[in-house]
């Protein structure tokens, strides 16, 4: 199965080609460029390097969220357009789960975090599951940094880009996973997409949408104004 994987949850990202669960090639998108400017050229370059035409892609996998509103919209829209054009299935995967699966350690529990802005984090707690995978027993949280720190228990580990600001504040009783594993990769998006396609099938092309887990600042402001006006 030839898989095209897109990771656009941040200001930049990566694309990857996989043969089932085996990586063929991964390429970073242009550094410092928004995904809208770099994603299409990145896909074109990747496919040229591996010698695939877009029509040969059997599955398109993409990060569904949480993450940058703009990056997620661009990634999902591109994935759906490509899948529709070639008649391939499409599948979305959770960004925080991608980060968890990249973690080489197996602590009793692992938290992965992304910066949600406004002093908050997107956070999810994972515990070891079957076949060296992780299970997420709860939901993704949008939580203030201090409140998140208060939930951490001795022996747990933390990972993810959300630690860029807060890694030094986690304390000595919590393990900080090495920085090289923090950023979600298209390779792991593809692997998770492949596993999910075997286990539960693909997503509905027309129903797949970004999972933001929160409203945009402008939407929250509008709701407050509406509430005040009422």
Summing up helix and strand content along with how strands pair, one would put the structural category as alpha/beta
Please give the largest β-sheet: 6 strands, mixed
Portion of residues in beta strands equals 25-35%
CATH class type of the largest domain? Alpha Beta
Return the CATH architecture of the largest domain.
2-Layer Sandwich
| Count of DSSP strands | 11
Domain module tally? 2
Order of helices and strands: EEEHEHEHEEEEHEHEHH
Question: What would the CATH topology of the largest domain be?
Answer: Nucleotidyltransferase, domain 5
Distance between the termini: 55 Å
How much helix is in the residues? 25-40%
In the CATH hierarchy, what is the superfamily of the largest domain? ATPase, nucleotide binding domain
Summed over residues and divided by their number, the pLDDT gives a mean of 89
- Shape descriptor: globular
Oligomer: single chain
Supply the number of helical segments: 7
